[in-house]
Amino acid sequence: MFAGLAVDGTTVNSLDEDSTIELTFATDTEFRCTACGADLVETPGGFDDDTGESDCPAYLPDGPDADDTGPHTPERVALAWCNSAGIRTDETDDAITLSLSTGDPRGAFTITIRRVPDDADSPLAGRLLLHLPHPGEPTPHEPLHPLHPGTFVIGRPAPTRRGHLTAA
Ligand SMILES: [Zn+2]
Q: What is the pTM of this model?
């Protein structure tokens, strides 16, 4: 095997044996305030910043008679749902696996393409097989619920109506 490793189009390395490439994401901040920029943690009553304060210092009252204090405005931090994303090559198994970890950081959803050995006693000898995460899989990374062909909702089943912003 010989493979080039490129980051944003620039070759940074070449690989000549089995390799595991992994991006790991900082996932300790899931919510941030769009008004003051503070990292937020979800509480039973709303969202607090890292000083435990639920009032936002950048809160703008709606009008002259409105309260001059108000809550933070939470938004989800982009890509905070991902623990890691990776590529693993395995020459012995003639397989490449892509992985995406969204739940327990020790595991991941995996997509694998593997070639059946030419000497296999099978009509599939020499053919490529694609293995995908699917509902009903034993020990799944996270439960999957079909939405459309090829698209799944991860975790809980899809609600019938849009809910308020809450942790996944
Ligand atoms: Zn704020």
A: 0.80
